Amino acid sequence: MNNGRCPFFLVLLLAVWVGLSTSGCSKTADQSAQGQRESIAKLLDAYIDGYKTGEWGKVRFTADVTFEGPLKGPISGESTVRTFLLTVRAKDVRVKRQIIDGQFACVLADFETKEGTVVPFCEFFRISDGQIAEIRPYFDPRPFIR
Questions:
Q1: Which domains does the chain carry?
Q2: Cα–Cα–Cα angle for 105, 51, 118, nearest 5°?
Q3: Averaged over 103-132, what is the pLDDT?
Q4: The pTM is what?
């Protein structure tokens, strides 16, 4: 190879090497983000199951978790939120969609009361270190206050 092409060849080789090495980092970051989304999805599933079963022990809350909804709140603290959630029971909760974006998540679902009334709701969550730190349900409260 002549001397004029050698620097070009070295630059090209370096560019290919850098491209290959950074693409592996990107895959690792994507896998990490996917793992985080899956972990949050499981946490949300456990939370929604709590409405149906009354079992809130599998749900991880931060010590200073806050809950604020149309009929209750704001309340804060893990034991206070758990005690309140024990009073909320559903015959069924049919999840339509989970939306997870980093530390924020949202569940769109239909809440069926023990009496059979179906109330669509949206519940917003903030997640911190794999635990629920904030809960904000949004729904039409009229079926609950009749």
A1: 28-144 (3.10.450.50)
A2: 90
A3: 96
A4: 0.76
